[in-house]
């Protein structure tokens, strides 16, 4: 996404590009090819969901992590036999959105932060990705097969198969998620230790607490953990 001030000015006057307008001088890609690809993606999600519902007693919902997701969620709802409950961040605050995700039994998402926010709750998830972030996340969990491509013409079948795999291997998937969360907490602690030594090199007089730095415990460089994260650390810390 790049700034397009001339298009923004014309859109302000005419509304010509309103459907593609993100905010300010930024616009989403648009055009017939984009619309077809977007429709194929949503139909893939809807088809996999319908396949899954035929074999499982479940209560699916649609979650829009960003306000701009409302349009996609409503469009997908139109593809289903009956509309699903819809939770979008233009009506719900951050804490409510995270709470909803962590009460799910499975999450399927193209939003990186939906996957990440659900992980401390050990919610099994499948990512449908358009960039490397979700691929890297699933690889970090040891579950690269749970990252599917947004433009895959067989998204319906592959997503349904991935959802079945999650059900069949639920405990293993949850363990991979838990270890990933704890590993990344430790990485953040190590980053804090590196920062301490960096600052100490330029400001040796700075009063850091004793034991901080790369020679110390990385966990000492993290803020106090909440009960959910603390329980994961106790369970999965090597």
Q: What would you note in describing this structure?
A:
There is one protein chain. By secondary structure, the chain is mainly alpha-helical. It has 3 domains: 1-30, no CATH class; 32-168, Rossmann fold, CATH 3.40.50; 176-236. Helices cover 53% and strands 9% of the residues. The chain is built from 9 helices and 7 strands, in the order H-E-E-H-E-H-E-H-E-H-E-H-E-H-H-H. The chain has helices at 5-14, 32-55, 69-78, 94-102, 112-118, 132-140, 155-168, 170-202, 227-236, and strands spanning 21-23, 26-27, 62-64, 86-88, 107-109, 125-129, 147-149. The strands form 3 sheets. It has a 3-stranded parallel beta sheet, sandwiched between helices. Strands 1-2 form a two-stranded antiparallel sheet. It has a two-stranded parallel ribbon with strand order 3-4. Helix 5 links the parallel strand 5 and strand 6. The longest helix has 33 residues, at 170-202. It is globular and about 65 Å long.
The helix count comes to: 9
- Tell me the overall shape: globular
Which percent range fits the helix content? 40-55%
CATH topology of the largest domain: Rossmann fold
Cα gyration radius (Å): 21 Å
- The CATH architecture of the largest domain is 3-Layer(aba) Sandwich
Relative strand content? 5-15%
Overall average pLDDT = 91
Low-confidence stretches: none
Quick structural summary:
This protein has 238 residues and is mainly alpha-helical. The chain has helices at residues 5-14, 32-55, 69-78, 94-102, 112-118, 132-140, 155-168, 170-202, 227-236, and strands at residues 21-23, 26-27, 62-64, 86-88, 107-109, 125-129, 147-149.
């Amino acid at each position: 996404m790049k700034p397009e001030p001339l298009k923004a000015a014309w859109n302000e006057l005419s509304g010509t590009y309103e459907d593609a307008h993100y905010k300010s001088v930024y616009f989403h890609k648009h055009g017939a090819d984009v619309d077809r690809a977007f429709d194929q993606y949503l139909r893939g999600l809807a088809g996999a969901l319908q396949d899954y519902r035929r074999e499982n007693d479940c209560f699916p919902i649609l979650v829009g992590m960003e306000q701009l997701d409302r349009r996609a969620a409503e469009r997908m709802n139109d593809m289903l036999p009956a509309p699903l409950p819809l939770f979008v961040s233009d009506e719900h605050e951050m804490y409510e959105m995270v709470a909803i995700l962590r009460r799910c039994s499975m999450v399927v998402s193209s939003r990186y932060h939906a996957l990440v926010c659900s992980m401390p709750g050990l919610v099994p998830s499948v990512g449908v990705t358009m960039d490397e972030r979700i691929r890297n996340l699933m690889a970090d969990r040891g579950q690269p097969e749970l990252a599917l491509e947004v433009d895959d013409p067989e998204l319906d079948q592959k997503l349904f198969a991935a959802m079945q795999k999650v059900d069949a291997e639920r405990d293993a998937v949850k363990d991979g998620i838990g270890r990933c969360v704890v590993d990344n907490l430790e990485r953040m602690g190590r980053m804090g230790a590196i920062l301490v030594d960096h600052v100490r090199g330029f400001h040796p007089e700075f009063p850091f607490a004793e034991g901080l730095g790369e020679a110390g415990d990385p966990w000492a460089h993290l803020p106090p953990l909440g009960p959910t994260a603390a329980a994961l650390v106790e369970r999965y810390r090597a």
